Each structure stands twice: as structure tokens, then as C-alpha cells.
């Protein structure tokens, strides 16, 4: 028998881990070697360790692929727990906040994105999309991309939009809607400036008209055409609320899913946020078309309007991932917490045998990666994947007695936080603290912006 070959030297070696490589591969006492922003090799206790420029001793902790957030509204962290709006319905809540968000400027967007990404990194997230659909001034997407690049975060910026104001039967005020041509021109510019389709990309762009009740049919059709032409993905809110069924019946004369099909969105480049109220037949239909959907557990519970049956939807053929949704509906942005809440919601709905911690982790990694069309490179740690991973920490008091299953222990105890978060092989959270040199300064600017935006409510 020939001896096991010694792996080639690497940039960073994470060792001493319970390593979750993929949905069907875990290595107790495992190690993972990272080189040039990619996973170079994985091994177990019996395999020789490669030489490494830097070593991270996981100290027996759980190591997983980085969690992936497929739905967020980062700018909303400027209006978290906003008292005048917290107890209304979704439509009441939006109506109260739109005038506040109408005051956003470019600096607000940059600092809120920076803070949101740092928060996500601390909760073990290594890739996030953001649905930014309020554009009262130009330059918002550029500001977001700047923040993500400053931090070294893998980011899917979406060019959101709203065209239908109160005057046209929509919800938002006229100050936050734009006309069709301005939106499409800006979307084309954003794709040209920031969309990187290459493997290992740090920035991609998607198109994201806000929802059936805030955009025109024409912008949906034009977005589908631009997606077809450029290959960028499509994202929108769909079937979040029963009010939306009534709205679609009245305005479009059909159900939300039929509307989606009519505007050319029922294809494999589309992923939807929420998707709570389709029929099973509609879920299967969109599943066959290759559509994905994001469950946002905390936001669904906070808004109190139900949640999708995630594993059932997946059984019916739909791709399902997780998201934390807006910072002003969830009021927090921890993908660990969303993963845990997905587990709790699944078991609450379908009983204790219906869902395990590994199922929830799979939604947050493989499922979310597939929603973003990126499952070849992220959401797992097989050799060749992007070097995006998390070494998890749970306080020893909370973890005391959890001995038999490291993945169940990770999600059932807690709260867990990232001890180390690595994106493209770079350490962005180290020993539980974000590596974000400008954080103190950015938090000061963020507070100033939040006070300005909320001035009316603060009296
Ligand atoms: Zn949302």
C-alpha cells in the first residue's frame, strides 16, 4: 500500500474541527486547507497535515460552510424597532416607513450596508444579497458595492425598483418611485459596472422590482428581458400576504403566481422572497420551471402573517433557501438565528420528526446557494469551492451537556456566534470580533443618520 501523499502547502489551515464539508460529508477531527481563496483539500485525523502559512486551531469547534443570506434590506437597519410602525400589518408598516426611507442619501446607504455586513459576518454569513428598492437619489448601488468591497464580503447587489406610487394605486409615496426608463438605464449601468459572472466573483448584480403592488407590469417584463440578455438573476417579493392575492385579482385579474408567469419570470434565474401563500400546485409548477424561494423565518414571525412550509415546498421541487429579511422587520441579521428559527418553524408545523438541524443548515447553505445560482462554488466546502467558512462558538455554559451530536448541539443550544468567519480565505471575524478597522467611525455616522431619519418620531 502506498503511503498517503502529503498535500501541497497552503495559505491557511483550519484544523481540530468537526468539519461539515457538505450535506452528506462530515469529518470529525477534520482539517481544511485553503489556497488562493479556494478550498485546496480536506482531511481527517489520520491524514497528514499540509504545511501552511497560517494555522487556525478550531479547538474542537464546529466548522461549516458560510451561511448564505438570500433576502435582506440592509438600509432598514437605520430604522430598527421603529416605534410608530411596529404593530401594524405589513401594508401599515410599509406605509409608515416609506416617508422616512424617502430621506435616505448615499452616505446613509454606505454606512447601513457596512454595518449590516459586519452584523452578518458575526452571525456566520459569508455571502449576502441585498434588495435595495428605494432610490430617491442616484448612486445607492455603487455605495453598497463600495462597502462590501471595503470589508471583503461576497455580495449580490440587486437593483430594486418601485414605479407605482399611491397616486397610481400603489403603496409608496411618489418621492420613492421612479419611471420605467430611469430604472432600466440604471440597471444596465449597474450590471456594466459591478456584475462579475466569473468564477469566484466577489460582486454580482441582480434585478429586483419590489413586489406586484409597487411596480408596473412593464418593469417586470423589461427586467425579464434584460435578465435574458445579460444572464443576471431576478428577484422579487411574492405571495407574502393575503392582501396581495386581493390586489393581484383586482389589478391583474389573476393570482400572484399566474402574474409571475405572465411577465416571463417563471424560469431558473428567478428567486422569490417569502412565497407563503401559493397553492401546492403552484409551488410544483414554479419548481418545475426552476424557480427558487427564500424563507425569512424571523420576519415572518414578527410580521405575523405565516411562513412557507420550507421542506414541503422543497419536496414539491422548489429550490428553497433562507434569508433574514429587512433590518426593520426582523430587527436583527443573524443567519444562525434564521437557521434555528427555520428549524423551529418546521417542527412546529410538521412535528418533531419532520426536520433536523442538518436540514436547516442545508437550507442556509446549499439551498441558499442554489437560489443565487451559485451552488457550484458556495454553500459547501468541497475542494475547489470558495474558501468561505465559519468556525462557530457557543458559550461553554450554553453548550454544557451537549455531547452527542455537534450539529444538533450547535443549533439547539446557543446563541451561537461566529468565532472566526473567513470569506475567500480572508479572516473577517477573528476570535469573535469583526476585522473592520473603520467600524467605530462608521457606527458613529450610522447613529447620526438614524437620528436624522427618525427625527420626527423622536420629537
Ligand atoms: Zn423583504
Automatic annotation (TrEMBL):
Record carries keyword Cytoplasm: no
Signal peptide interval: none
Coiled coil region boundaries: none
Group of enzyme by EC: hydrolase
GO MF: 8-oxoguanine deaminase activity
EC code: 3.5.4.32
InterPro entries listed in its UniProt record: Amidohydro-rel, Metal-dep_hydrolase_composite, Metal_Hydrolase, MTA/SAH_deaminase
Keyword check for Hydrolase: yes
SUPFAM superfamilies assigned: Composite domain of metallo-dependent hydrolases, Metallo-dependent hydrolases
Domain Amidohydrolase-related: 62-403
Assigned keywords, A-Z: Hydrolase
Protein name as catalogued: 8-oxoguanine deaminase
Amino acid at each position: 500500500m502506498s503511503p498517503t501523499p502529503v498535500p501541497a502547502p497552503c495559505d491557511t489551515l483550519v484544523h481540530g474541527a468537526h468539519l461539515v464539508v457538505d450535506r452528506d460529508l462530515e469529518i470529525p477531527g477534520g482539517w481544511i486547507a485553503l489556497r488562493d481563496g479556494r478550498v485546496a483539500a480536506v482531511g481527517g485525523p489520520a491524514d497528514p497535515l499540509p504545511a501552511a502559512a497560517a494555522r487556525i486551531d478550531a479547538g474542537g469547534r464546529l466548522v461549516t460552510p458560510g451561511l448564505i443570506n438570500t433576502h435582506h434590506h440592509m438600509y432598514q437597519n437605520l430604522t430598527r424597532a421603529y416605534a410608530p410602525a411596529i404593530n401594524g400589518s405589513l401594508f401599515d408598516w410599509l406605509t409608515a416607513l416609506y416617508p422616512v426611507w424617502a430621506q435616505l442619501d448615499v452616505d446613509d446607504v454606505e454606512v447601513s450596508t457596512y454595518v449590516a455586513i459586519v452584523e452578518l459576518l458575526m452571525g456566520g454569513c459569508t455571502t449576502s444579497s441585498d434588495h435595495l428598492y428605494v432610490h430617491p437619489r442616484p448612486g445607492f448601488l455603487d455605495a453598497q458595492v463600495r462597502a462590501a468591497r471595503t470589508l471583503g464580503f461576497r455580495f449580490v447587489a440587486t437593483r430594486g425598483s418601485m414605479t407605482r406610487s399611491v397616486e397610481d394605486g400603489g403603496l409608496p409615496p411618489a418621492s420613492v418611485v421612479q419611471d420605467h426608463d430611469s430604472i432600466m438605464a440604471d440597471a444596465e449601468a449597474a450590471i456594466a459596472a459591478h456584475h462579475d459572472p466569473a468564477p469566484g466573483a466577489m460582486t454580482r448584480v441582480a434585478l429586483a422590482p419590489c413586489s406586484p403592488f409597487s411596480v408596473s407590469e412593464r418593469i417586470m417584463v423589461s427586467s425579464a428581458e434584460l435578465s435574458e440578455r445579460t444572464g443576471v438573476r431576478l428577484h422579487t417579493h411574492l405571495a407574502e400576504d393575503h392582501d396581495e392575492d386581493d390586489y393581484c385579482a383586482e389589478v391583474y385579474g389573476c393570482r400572484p403566481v399566474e402574474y409571475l408567469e405572465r411577465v416571463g419570470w417563471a424560469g431558473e434565474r428567478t428567486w422569490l422572497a417569502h412565497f407563503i401563500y401559493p397553492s401546492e400546485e403552484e409551488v410544483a409548477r414554479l419548481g418545475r420551471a426552476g424557480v427558487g424561494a427564500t424563507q425569512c423565518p424571523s420576519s415572518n414571525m414578527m410580521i405575523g402573517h405565516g411562513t412557507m412550509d420550507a421542506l414541503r415546498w422543497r419536496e414539491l421541487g422548489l429550490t428553497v433557501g433562507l434569508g433574514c429579511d429587512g433590518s426593520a422587520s426582523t430587527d436583527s441579521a443573524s443567519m444562525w438565528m434564521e437557521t434555528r428559527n427555520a428549524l423551529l418553524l418546521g417542527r412546529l408545523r410538521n412535528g418533531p420528526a419532520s426536520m433536523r438541524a442538518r436540514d436547516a443548515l442545508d437550507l442556509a447553505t446549499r439551498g441558499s446557494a442554489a437560489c443565487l445560482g451559485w451552488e457550484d462554488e458556495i454553500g459547501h466546502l468541497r475542494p475547489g469551492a470558495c474558501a468561505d467558512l465559519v468556525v462557530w462558538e457557543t458559550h461553554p455554559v450554553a453548550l454544557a451537556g451537549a455531547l452527542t451530536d455537534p450539529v444538533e448541539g450547535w443549533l439547539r443550544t446557543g446563541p451561537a456566534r461566529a468565532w472566526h468567519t473567513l470569506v475567500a480565505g480572508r479572516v473577517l471575524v477573528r476570535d469573535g470580533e469583526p476585522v473592520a478597522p473603520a467600524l467605530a467611525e462608521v457606527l458613529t455616522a450610522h447613529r447620526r443618520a438614524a437620528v436624522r431619519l427618525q427625527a420626527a418620531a423622536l420629537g
